[in-house]
Amino acid sequence: xxxxxxxxxxxxxxxxxxxxxxxxxxxxxxxxxxxxxxxxxxxxxxxxxxxxxxxxxxxxxxxxxxxxxxxxxxxxxxxxxxxxxxxxxxxxxxxxxxxxxxxxxxxxxxxxxx
Length: 114
Fold this sequence. Notes:
Blueprint: H1 22-30, H2 37-46, H3 51-54, H4 61-64, H5 67-81
């Protein structure tokens, strides 16, 4: 049961950013996207907040929706059910250092010791 309460599980935020009263609001806002009941249930349970997380929730998402529509769905989910706070380590440093821009991604022959 601890799995459900640890990141990135949908129930890991304490207190939860939504209540059961928010579910009808979500369903109403997503009505125009012709999602099935199963897809809506997956969206409610998983609260996707990125495009890759939306893919397992919606069958043939790339064929049925444009990228803009997919982002709109994610925006509605975040607006109604709340979004996950970004992990501290995923954020770039405040001073702009450490972004890896000056790192040499592929070592050249000159940089390799023989």
